Amino acid sequence: MRNEIIRLVNTVSDPTAKKAFTVEMQMFSKLLSRYIAGANDKLDWEKVKSPAAGQILPYSQLLQPEDERALLKQLAVLKVNGGLGTSMGLQGAKSALEVKDGQTFLDLVVQQITHVNASQDANVPLLLMTSFNTHEDTLRIIQKYDPKQVRITPFMQSKYPRIMKDSLLPCPKKESDDKAAWYPPGHGDLYTTLYRSGMLDRLLKEGRQYLFVSNSDNLGAVVDSRILQHMIDTKAEFLMEVTDKTKADIKGGTLIDYDGTIRLLEIAQVSSEHSEEFKSVRKFRIFNTNNLWINLKALKKVMDNGGMELEIIVNPKVTDDGHSIIQLETAAGAAIRHFRNAQGINVPRSRFLPVKNCSDLLLVKSDLYALENGRLVPNEERMFGTTPVITLDDHFKLIRDFQARFKTIPRVIELDHLTVSGNVYFGRNVTLRGTVISESRRPVYPL
């Protein structure tokens, strides 16, 4: 394995590029060595406890800050923007998908930050952590935004080689091999990327002491000064936003108490005999939204002292030609155990509105929400606080199929549950109420 990595590095001729690639391969080798040494061993389940009192605080207890403008001078916002959305049939950056009123994920994010800056006379910068899959797309897209309204800085995370499952040897033979031989190693890579790119030092030099991190496809992840004020008041070095589980969230990572330390537990770390207990809401009632608040001075200290070893997530794949491979990834939330006074904040569900599939997209596009300064605002006409449960089958899996099956988005303000199975088409001016189950091969009235 070591020889193959050296060969990969030697395929780069440009000295500057080779130096950067060497650092990346050194980090990858360290991750792979940890995996081979058994760093991904399961936790001792007897030590896994529900979070202790004080480790998770209800959002309702947070106080409104007196001087929001002063707070925002210390804040930067980072959106994880490396996903392609291939599961939805997208070819480019997922953040370029139109999700509401002709606006893309990135359009809405920029509108949100622009509004914060304009209303508070602030200059909160927006960082976009891209991947080698989305970087060029992102550079092209952000040219349309006004830099006077929001300063946008894209930077690319690491690129690691996929490895063969049986031999643990890298799939690519040279650095210039097709993108399919490589992968971005998860959002846990953001700490190393911020540090080695110099971005962390630049933020601190500018006076930014706190970083709000979230996924670009989570439309509920807006700047919240109450959370930032709490972080400052309690001297917490790391905050993770969590929210109550529903049936759709049973596989999501959760916070636990492990030997008296707050930690993130992912389902990949749980043995099969305990997986049902992990999914149950009786013991683990909350899950990680991946909205994170980080003290940058504390992060600088951790990275200067050798960085952090995050739990390894093994992501198995099968290539187009039938080879079994694995990707070794890490999660950003796993860093919580490396910071002092780290806490979870149990936030309202409105701060977790991701679009992971076309069922989510239908909700966002519907009359359940309106847009206000780039953020989704719930429709006050809906009588229930919960959102409808929508399940669309594989006929709706890809964006092109989803768009072909809806002439217009149905009105769902009174919908409780929708299940669609089969080659169903929805016409114009459709209203869905209560529980709707469709298995018909005929179009839903009226076309």
From TrEMBL:
Its EC number is 2.7.7.9. Gene3D superfamilies: Hexapeptide repeat proteins, Spore Coat Polysaccharide Biosynthesis Protein SpsA, Chain A. GO terms for molecular function: UTP:glucose-1-phosphate uridylyltransferase activity. It is an enzyme of class 2 (transferase). CDD domains: UGPase_euk. Keywords: Nucleotidyltransferase, Transferase. This is UTP--glucose-1-phosphate uridylyltransferase. It comes from Asterophora parasitica.
